[in-house]
Structure formats: C-alpha cells, structure tokens
C-alpha cells in the first residue's frame, strides 16, 4: 500500500482503493538525482491542464529544464486540434515535462513528440508488460479484444524562449464503462500485468531521459541517434492506407510509406506522387 502523504487531506485520497495516489516522495527519490535530466517533480491533486500550468511556471522562472508536473485529475487537458482529454481521478497518468534543447536546431524540434512516443511505448512495455503501437504523429495505441484502441496521446507546445512543454496522457485503469468513446482503451483493458502508476511513470520518464539524451547528443539528427528507425518500427500507421485531413480543409489519401528526416509522414498517392504531411489529422482506412 502506498504511504499517505501527510501534506494532503486523508479522506479524499482513498475514495477508490483500486486507484491509490501517487507517492510524490518516492518519485522524487527515484528521478531527481545528481546527473539526471529531471530537476523537479511535483504532483497536484487537480488542475485544468498540466501543459498550461508548467508553461506558466516556466514563464515565471519557477521551472527549468527537466521539470515534471503530474496531475491526479486533469479537467481541461487538451489533445491535438484542441480536443478535450478528461478521465476519472487517478485512473491515468497526466503529466508534462519542460525541455530546452537549445543546442538542437529548431527545425528538428518537430521530432520531440515522436521521440516522446517512442519513450512512452518503451516505458510502458517494460513496466506494464503490454504491447503498444504509435499512430502518427502523437497517439499511443493498445489492443483490446482484438481491436486497436487509443490509450494515450502526446501534445508538444512552445514555452517561452527556447523551451518546449510536452504533455502526456495515458489511460491506465480506465474501465469499459468509463471509456469516453468506443474507440478508447486503457492499459488495464489491454491486459497490463501492472497498473501501479508509480513504476509506470518512472519507466516512461527514464526512457524519455534516455532518448532525449541520445537525440540531443546527435544534434537532433533522428537517423544518427537511431530514433527515426525505432519510431518507424513501432509506428502502426506505416504500411496502411490513410486519409490525412490537412489545414485549409484539404485531405490526401494514400499509403503511408515512411516517416522522413523531418518527422513528416510520407504518403504514396494514387496519382503516383509521394506527399509529405507535416501537420494534420490522420485516419487509418484499413489494417496493416
């Protein structure tokens, strides 16, 4: 049983014993240490958006590179295209990190959400024992009852001068009757061997630290650090027919054949051309 944090009210923290609170003290001991990327770890009981909160802290000088902000409940979380992301308290992991890769050319910063996806998939595979796949550019997929379901998402946003806040939301113990939409899933529904959020969070952050260090040491070169190859190997979008809904109400249909050096999804269209897509919403049209 996770020890109670005396700084928090007792009653509300144990309203659902299947969903114990995070142990912030243990998280700090495991992550914030000499030589680590992670400089501070804070857990709040409830907030609108960890991305917005961490960006505000950075602007006020209260957070630097490696700051981690976790919410037990997020009421106004955002996905791409300003989609809402909400879930019951302590049913998932909702956190943001602040990174300042100033030695990497800004043109390569588009790889950060893809890098985070690789780290999330790596950490969950190790800590939860569940197979995950990545849908370009920012969804984390699991298999529930033979069907592909979205269990998480990633959102990167600029934060002040030279900073990027990356938000991650993962459905951990969400039950079938709690799913917001039929296409959603969770680690529990996918048969995870563990839904203990403390080791899951540590696993994802350690994997993120590892991949971010490799990418930064390579000057952001995704091929040089192995990121491009690893992302492609775990990307469920490649090899499928997809429809990319682009800004300006334009769409492109084609087979997803590659992720290029800029992190763009390359589509081979029926017109016989290869079109790179750098932004937009991608719909899988058929299984791989």
Task: Using brief descriptors, characterize the structure shown.
aa-tRNA-synth_II/BPL/LPL; 288 residues; 28% strand; ligase activity; disordered N terminus; five-stranded antiparallel sheet; alpha+beta; seven-stranded mixed sheet; globular; ligase
Total E-strand runs: 14
Structural class: alpha+beta
Quick one: overall form?
globular
Q: Termini, distance in Å?
A: 42 Å
Query: How large is the count of helical segments?
Result: 6
Tell me the strand order in the biggest sheet: 1-2-5-9-8-7-6
Describe this structure in words.
The chain has 288 residues and is α+β, with helices and mostly antiparallel strands. The protein is 24% helix and 28% strand. It is built from six helices and 14 strands. It has helices spanning 10-13, 24-31, 50-59, 112-128, 197-217, 227-234, and strands at residues 40-44, 67-71, 77-78, 84-85, 92-99, 133-135, 139-144, 147-158, 164-171, 241-246, 250-259, 265-269, 274-277, 281-284. The chain has a seven-stranded mixed beta sheet. A five-stranded antiparallel beta sheet has the order 13-12-11-10-14. It has a two-stranded antiparallel ribbon with strand order 3-4. α4 crosses α6. The longest helix is centred in the last third of the chain and has 21 residues, at 197-217. It starts with 9 loop residues before the first helix and ends with a strand. It is an enzyme of class 6 (ligase). GO terms for molecular function: ligase activity.
């Amino acid at each position: 049983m996770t020890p109670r944090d005396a700084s928090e009210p007792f009653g509300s923290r144990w309203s659902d014993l299947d969903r114990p609170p995070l142990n912030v003290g243990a998280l700090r001991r495991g992550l914030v240490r000499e030589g680590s990327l992670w400089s501070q770890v804070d857990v709040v009981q409830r907030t609108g958006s960890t991305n917005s909160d961490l960006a505000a802290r950075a602007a006020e000088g209260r957070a630097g590179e490696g700051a981690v902000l976790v919410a037990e409940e997020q009421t106004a979380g955002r996905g791409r295209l300003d989609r809402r992301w909400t879930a019951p308290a302590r049913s998932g992991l909702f956190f943001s990190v602040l990174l300042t890769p100033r030695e990497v050319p800004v043109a390569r910063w588009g790889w950060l959400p893809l890098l985070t996806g690789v780290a999330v998939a790596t950490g969950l595979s190790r800590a939860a024992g569940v197979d995950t796949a990545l849908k370009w550019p920012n969804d984390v997929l699991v298999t529930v009852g033979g069907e592909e379901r979205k269990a998480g998402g990633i959102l990167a946003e600029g934060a002040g001068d030279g900073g990027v806040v990356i938000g991650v939301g993962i459905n951990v113990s969400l039950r079938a009757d709690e799913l917001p939409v039929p296409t959603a899933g969770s680690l529990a529904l996918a048969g995870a061997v563990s839904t203990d959020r403390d080791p899951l969070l540590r696993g994802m952050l350690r994997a993120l630290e590892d991949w971010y260090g490799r990418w930064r040491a390579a000057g952001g070169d995704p091929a040089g650090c192995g990121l491009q190859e690893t992302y492609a190997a775990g990307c469920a979008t490649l090899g499928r027919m997809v429809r990319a809904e682009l800004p300006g109400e334009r769409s492109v249909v084609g087979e997803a054949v590659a992720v290029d050096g800029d992190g763009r999804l390359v589509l081979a269209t029926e017109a016989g051309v290869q079109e790179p897509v750098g932004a937009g919403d991608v719909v899988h049209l058929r299984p791989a």
